[in-house]
Automatic annotation (TrEMBL), chain A:
Pfam families cross-referenced by the UniProt entry: FmiP_Thoc5 (PF09766)
Keyword Nucleus among UniProt keywords: yes
GO cellular component, one term: THO complex part of transcription export complex
Assigned protein family: Belongs to the THOC5 family.
TM segment ranges: none
Name of the molecule in the record: THO complex 5
Lineage: Eukaryota, Metazoa, Chordata, Craniata, Vertebrata
Naturally occurring in which organism (per UniProt): Cyprinus carpio
Record GO terms (molecular function): mRNA binding
Automatic annotation (TrEMBL), chain B:
Protein name per Swiss-Prot or TrEMBL: THO complex 6
UniProt family annotation: Belongs to the WD repeat THOC6 family.
WD repeats, residue ranges: 148-189
GO cellular component, one term: THO complex
Cross-referenced InterPro entries: THOC6 (IPR042626), WD40/YVTN_repeat-like_dom_sf (IPR015943), WD40_repeat_CS (IPR019775), WD40_repeat_dom_sf (IPR036322), WD40_rpt (IPR001680)
Pfam families cross-referenced by the UniProt entry: WD40
The keyword Protein transport belongs to this UniProt entry's keyword annotation: no
Lineage start: Eukaryota, Metazoa, Chordata, Craniata, Vertebrata
Organism the protein comes from: Cyprinus carpio carpio
Keyword tags: Repeat, WD repeat
GO biological process: mRNA export from nucleus
Entry annotated with the keyword Repeat: yes
Length: 706, 323
């Protein structure tokens, strides 16, 4: 049956051979040659067929054969061979003869099988060779393909590199700052902006914007060129005008020269003012501010005092102008030089020149305390003809202003010993404003500068350099943060300060006058103040002397005043002695520099039948308060320059009252009274502390209690 | 008030509020200051709590006398008496509730008022001062109903004996006069300076302090401070205090006295000075004991200073209130 099937299929195979040998092979592979018998037959058929179509070619045959079949065939053949061998063996062992038919038959069959094996062997070799060839071929193809792949990969890499290079490319236009898009669309003309193209196309937009930028820059460059040309022209014009002006100078000077006599004649010192203005340019800023403000104030005052025909305030600049010029030419250079050399010197000092440190420090101190070569003299005139001369200095390195004062009076003021301190330039302007002693520098920065050169306190140099009062700094527009937050201009201080200065001078002159009377034991009660006192005052001043602070503090009866903190070392201290008969009243007087704004303070001690003081006796205490407290009654006409005199006079009156009423109380029958009662008193004692009637009632002339 | 005014200030009078938590003090400038004792005595008292909570000018002249009723503070100025409600003062309102003037005969100088006391029996105010007379005002109506005349100089001090309803007055003329409050007639007159034990002619004869305790009377001034037995009208002990005394009080078995000299004197009834406690003012005008409030049991003294010394323990000065 199977051989039939093979037979039937064979012709088909042959027919198909030229078309698709692969399908034929695969089909052949699928077929199984099942039986050995059919195999031989099959071979014969095939041989015949090959012979029919073409010349036998073992190689071609090889193609047609299926190795699997060959393998089966080989196995079958081997099995057959073994079987045959076994049969021969069997036969031989059963005693059959070597040349017998059965054995011969089997020999033949064996030979056929050997041939088959041989064939198969050959085929196998050929197949192997073919296989090798195929493998080699395939390998070669693979190699080629691999090479191709490598090329392609390399190309890809290169392209990627190129792409990234392109991406990273920076165009120069990105650094140009362009106008914003909205602005661009608003301003640029349509032919540049081309909105229909550029609205959507970013690239085109950028290009258009660049175009616009270029356009604009071109325009600006044009403009710049035009401006330059115009500048050139204007400069030329200025040059011409300057030349013209300088040619005018000599002519003007001639006219000025010619007008001098006229100016003098008309007493209009234009020339002088001009000169002063010229010098003023070299003033340091604080002094300049002071000059301007003082001059302005002087002018304003001059108008109000026009009838007196002399200016109440005049300002002058004095000092070495050339030096100031040299200084103002390069102030920064010199400053730097100095500080540099300072540093160098310091180094040298530490290294080797210890012996000369003292000398160098002295030099440095001098340099630090140097004042500007120019100073400002302000003369303040009072109505009575006395003049307060103020000289303002500027300490360049400390950046503070100082002032020195001098008083020149219209009348001769000699004679008063105790008045020496009054017009002393050292203390004249002390405490113009409360607690402004002018001893320490108001610039807090100076503290550090002083430490560097070993200055302990500025007070040591005050007599040389002048007083750095705070009000002086304010006049010069110098503000130091220590004095609170209020910042005021120089101008706002000028009027008040000038008034205070004038008031101070008047007060001092008035005191001076009073002192010279007091020293001659005369109490100079002015006519305006007569009504404050009874006509007859028996007690009299017998001594008026100055005291030092030290002497004052040693007095026993002033301790309560010291304890109350009402005494300052800068105050002036006096001792007044009022006497009547055997009674002797000592009055220690504290005179504040701000007199008459601050009342002089009296402390009393009475030596009469033992010693009593305001500490121990209520009536003496009442007398103290009578002279110390009731300022409004005692000050007389404003601004109260007669205050001190009135206080002393009241003290005398009070002593009268005290003695007259006291003797009445306690004397019994001790003969005639020492102090007959002359004052009219309503009552001699009142209240729990039995005070005496110290208050004088003017028109009626009697004494009453407060 | 400047520092010079402070230096010359004297405190003349004091009075504790009815509740005992406040102290009013009057000075020579006519000002009354109200201090909070509870604040000053509290453990966390600061310097500010020693300052007055209220300071106002009550009168033109010095305030020589202050007195507290159950509701009001009475202050005596130059010839006038003003009343201030304590409740209002604590609220810092300084409007006088009323002001009355006794009718004076003299016109040239308005007499001062040196002493005021309350007669609790008929609720009247007894006022003595510069016109030598004692004026009695009915507190209900505010009318001055009677005048006691007898002193020849001005009256320093007044005192009331409740059991006998007697008014005691001491004056510059050196007499202690005893009046019957019901009939307004003089009962006795003791001229202290005539007793040799107490007289001090070198000072004078005025009587500036008076105090009574049942049958006993303290009086002093120009004459030495002395303890009198009223029934026998004789001095039993004289206290050897050097200065003139201005105020003296009985306190338990002690007599406390202030006057010239910067100290409070503690005396025993027998006539010995037990202690002299130093204080700030150089001489003292007034001494007050706060016995109404046990929490703030203090003694305060004022004088020729703007400071009022406070004694919590009576044997030393604790601190000072200050105007």
């Amino acid at each position: 049956m199977s051989s039939d099937a093979v037979k039937k299929r064979k012709p088909k195979v042959v027919r198909n051979e030229a078309g698709t040998p692969e399908t034929k092979r695969s089909r052949a592979e699928g077929d199984q040659l099942s039986a050995v018998s059919s195999h031989v037959e099959f071979r014969k058929v095939r041989l015949r067929q090959v012979q029919e179509v073409r010349v036998y070619n073992e190689e071609v045959e090889l193609e047609d054969r299926d190795p699997q079949q060959d393998y089966m065939l080989y196995k079958d053949t081997c099995a057959d061979l073994a079987k045959l061998m076994a049969e021969i063996q069997e036969l031989k062992s059963s005693g059959a003869k070597v040349g017998s038919v059965e054995i011969e038959e089997r020999h033949r069959q064996c030979s056929v099988h050997f041939i088959t094996l041989k064939k198969l062997n050959r085929l196998a070799h050929m197949r192997l060779k073919k296989g090798r060839d195929q493998t080699h071929e395939a390998k070669q193809r693979v190699d080629v393909l691999h090479l191709q792949l490598q090329n392609l990969l390399y190309e890809v890499m290169h392209l990627q590199k190129e792409i990234s290079k392109c991406l990273e490319f920076k165009s120069q236009h990105e650094e140009i700052e362009l106008v914003s898009e909205e602005e661009f669309f608003q301003e640029a003309p349509a032919e540049i902006s081309r909105p229909h193209v550029t609205r959507d196309d970013n690239h085109q937009l950028t290009l258009a914007r660049l175009d616009w930028e270029l356009e604009q820059r071109k325009r600006l460059a044009e403009q710049y060129k035009m401006s330059l040309a115009r500048k050139e022209k204007i400069q030329k014009a200025i040059e011409q005008k300057r030349e013209y002006l300088s040619s005018l100078q000599p002519g003007l000077q001639n006219i000025m020269q010619a007008s001098l006599p006229v100016q003098e004649y008309l007493s209009m010192p234009f020339e002088q003012m001009q000169k002063q203005a010229e010098v003023a340019r070299h003033l340091p800023p604080p002094l300049y501010v002071l000059l301007v403000q003082a001059a302005a104030y002087g002018q304003a005052c001059g108008k109000t005092h026009i009838f007196t025909l002399n200016k109440t305030l005049s300002v002058n600049i004095s000092g070495d102008v050339d030096e100031a010029k040299a200084l103002s030419r390069r102030p920064e250079d010199s400053q730097e030089d100095e500080s540099d050399s300072d540093a160098e010197e310091e180094q040298q000092n530490t290294k080797r020149r210890r012996a000369t440190v003292g000398v160098q420090l002295e030099d440095k101190r001098k340099a630090m305390l140097r004042r500007h070569p120019l100073s400002l003299c302000v003369d303040l005139k009072c109505k009575d003809g006395s003049v307060l001369h103020l000289v303002f200095y500027y300490l360049m390195n400390l950046n503070i202003l100082t002032v020195k004062t001098k008083v020149s009076t219209a009348t001769d003021l000699s004679g008063a010993v105790s008045a020496g301190e009054l017009l002393n330039s050292e203390s004249l302007l002390n405490c113009l404003y409360a607690s402004d002693h002018g001893k320490e520098t108001p610039n807090p920065a100076n503290r550090y500068q002083f430490d560097k050169v070993g200055i302990t306190t500025f007070a040591d140099y005050v007599s040389d350099l002048g007083h750095p009062y705070v009000w002086v700094q304010k006049l010069g527009g110098l503000q130091f943060s220590s004095d609170g937050a209020q910042v005021a201009l120089s101008a706002s201080h000028m009027e008040k300060t000038m008034k205070l200065l004038r008031g101070r001078l008047q007060a001092r002159l008035a005191l001076h006058k009073q002192f010279s009377s007091l020293e001659h034991s005369i109490i100079p009660v002015s006519s305006e103040c007569q009504h404050l006192f009874p006509a007859k005052v028996v007690s009299g001043l017998t001594r008026w002397t100055m005291m030092s602070y030290q002497e004052f503090t040693e007095l026993g009866f002033v301790q309560h005043v010291l304890k109350a903190g009402l005494v300052c070392e800068t105050d002036l201290f006096f001792m007044a002695v009022v006497e009547r008969g055997t009674a002797r009243l000592l009055a220690a007087v504290v005179l504040n520099p701000r007199y008459p704004e601050v009342m002089p303070l009296f402390s009393l001690s009475l030596h009469w039948k033992g010693e009593r003081s305001g500490r121990t006796e209520d009536n003496l205490r009442a007398m103290e308060s009578e002279v110390n407290v009731f300022r409004a009654e005692l000050q007389g006409p404003r601004p109260g320059l007669q205050l001190l005199t009135n206080q002393i006079q009241r003290l005398c009156v009070c002593l009268d009252v005290y003695l007259e009423t006291e003797s009445q109380v306690c004397d019994g029958s001790e003969g005639p009274r020492e102090f007959p009662r002359e004052k009219m008193c309503l009552r001699t004692a009142r209240g729990p502390s039995r005070l005496k009637p110290f208050k004088y009632n003017h028109p009626q002339g009697f004494f009453s209690h407060r | 008030m400047g520092p010079v005014e402070l230096l010359h200030m004297s405190v003349f009078s004091q009075s504790f509020s009815p509740c005992g938590r406040f102290l009013a003090a009057g000075n020579n400038y006519g000002e009354i200051a109200v201090f909070s004792l509870s604040a000053a005595l509290s453990p966390d008292a600061s310097e500010a709590s020693q300052k007055p909570i209220l300071n106002f000018t009550a009168h033109d002249g010095p305030v020589f006398s202050l007195l507290s009723t159950d509701t009001h503070l009475l202050s005596a100025g130059n010839g006038e008496i003003s009343a201030w409600s304590w409740a209002e003062l604590i609220k810092k309102s300084t409007k006088a509730a009323w002001t009355r003037k006794p009718s004076y005969e003299t016109s040239l100088e308005i007499p001062e008022i040196n002493a005021m006391i309350i007669n609790p029996k008929d609720n009247s105010l007894i006022v003595g001062g510069g016109d030598n007379n004692i004026h009695i005002m009915d507190m209900e109506t505010g009318i001055f109903k009677s005048v006691l005349k007898g002193h020849t100089d001005y009256i320093h001090c007044l005192c009331f004996k409740e059991r006998e309803e007697e008014i005691l007055s001491g004056g510059e003329d050196g007499a202690v006069r005893i009046w019957d409050a019901r009939t307004n007639r003089p009962v006795h007159c003791i001229e202290v300076f005539k007793y040799e034990e107490c007289a001090r002619p070198q000072f004078g004869k005025w009587i500036s302090c008076l105090a009574t305790d049942s049958d006993w009377m303290l009086c002093g001034g120009g004459p030495s401070l002395s303890l009198w037995h009223l029934r026998s009208m004789s001095p039993t002990s004289v206290f050897p205090l050097p200065g003139c005394q201005r105020e003296a009080v009985f306190y338990q078995d002690l007599i406390m006295s202030v006057g010239e000299g910067p100290h409070v004197s503690h005396c025993l009834h027998g006539g010995t000075v037990k202690a002299q406690i130093p204080c700030t003012p150089s001489s003292l005008n007034t001494l007050a004991l706060n016995l109404k409030n046990s929490e703030h049991r203090v003694m305060t003294v004022g004088g020729s200073s703007h400071q009022i010394d406070v004694f919590t323990n009576f044997s030393y000065r604790a601190f000072s209130l200050s105007f």
